């Protein structure tokens, strides 16, 4: 009985070795992938609302040709590793020959509250009609808000529009709700109309008479004085002639 059992074990072992040698290795090809942030983002910060770029170095160390299918990623809770959101998948469909290596960019967006999250980035490749996944990045990253800039034209435009609207609203409320002070009307002094009477001192109030009327009145007075002087001299000459005739 023991001889038969040993014989059966020997036959089974030989069949197993024969199947292993006859059939080729159909396991997962060795493909390495490592993701790194650019030098400008050495601390690996993920900025909300911006396109965050990461570079993935890929190397095919197997003796088979594979096809790079896509690159994708996901955000997880840092402690419980609970899935929060998947990032967009970027399809490639390019061949990766045996022993070949390449570096490809991958961009993703974030809309989370500032804090720490676990970021997982992977690539998928196809070999012998089988799809395999290789992890390129699995680490904690810090999600931050974009830093403000004094040269941000969009921000300044928004501030100006909002300031203009608030200023117009404040002016409208001020003019409608706050009572406005009434303007006092100053009476206008008009020149006297009619005849000009003499004052108690015997003169006229020349400040109420226009200048051209004053010039005309002065000329008429001068001509009147000259005429009365001639009449007086004529009278005197007639009187003297009569006196001389009486003496004769």
Large-scale geometry: rod-shaped
Arithmetic mean pLDDT: 75
Residue runs with pLDDT of under 50 for 5 or more positions: 1-24
**Distance, first to last CA:** 217 Å
Q: What share of residues is helical?
A: 25-40%
Strand residue percentage: 25-35%
Q: Could you say which structural class the secondary elements and strand pairing correspond to?
A: alpha+beta
Q: Give the number of DSSP strands.
A: 9
What is the string of SSEs from the N terminus onward? HEEEEEEEEEHH
Relevant terms:
about 250 residues, alpha+beta, six-stranded mixed sheet, three-stranded antiparallel sheet, 3 helices, 9 strands, disordered N terminus
What does this molecule look like?
- The protein has 248 residues and is of the alpha+beta class.
- It is 33% helix and 31% strand.
- It is built from three helices and nine strands, in the order H-E-E-E-E-E-E-E-E-E-H-H.
- Strands 2, 4, 5, 6, 8 and 9 form a six-stranded mixed beta sheet that branches. Strands 1-3-7 form a three-stranded antiparallel beta sheet, with no helix packed on it.
- The longest helix has 37 residues.
């Amino acid at each position: 009985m023991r001889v038969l059992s040993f014989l059966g074990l020997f036959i089974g072992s030989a069949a197993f070795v024969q199947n292993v040698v006859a059939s080729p290795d159909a396991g997962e090809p060795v493909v390495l992938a490592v993701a790194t942030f650019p030098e400008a983002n050495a601390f690996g910060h993920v900025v909300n609302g911006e396109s965050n770029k990461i570079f993935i170095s890929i190397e095919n160390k197997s003796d088979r040709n594979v096809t790079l299918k896509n690159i994708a990623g996901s955000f997880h809770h840092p402690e419980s590793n609970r899935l929060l959101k998947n990032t967009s998948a970027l399809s490639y469909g390019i061949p990766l020959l045996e022993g070949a290596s390449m570096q490809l960019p991958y961009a993703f967006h974030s809309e989370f509250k500032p804090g720490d999250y676990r970021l997982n980035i992977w690539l998928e490749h196809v070999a012998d009609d089988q799809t395999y996944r290789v992890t390129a990045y699995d680490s904690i990253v810090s999600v931050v808000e974009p830093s403000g800039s004094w040269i941000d034209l969009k921000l300044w435009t928004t501030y100006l529009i909002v300031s203009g609207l608030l200023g117009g609203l404040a002016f409208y409320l001020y003019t409608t709700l706050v009572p406005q002070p009434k303007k006092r009307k100053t009476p206008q002094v008009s020149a006297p109309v009619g005849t000009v009477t003499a004052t108690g001192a015997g003169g006229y109030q020349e400040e109420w008479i226009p200048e051209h009327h004053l010039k005309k009145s002065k000329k008429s007075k001068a001509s009147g004085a000259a005429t009365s002087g001639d009449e007086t001299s004529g009278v005197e000459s007639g009187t003297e002639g009569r006196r001389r005739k009486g003496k004769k």
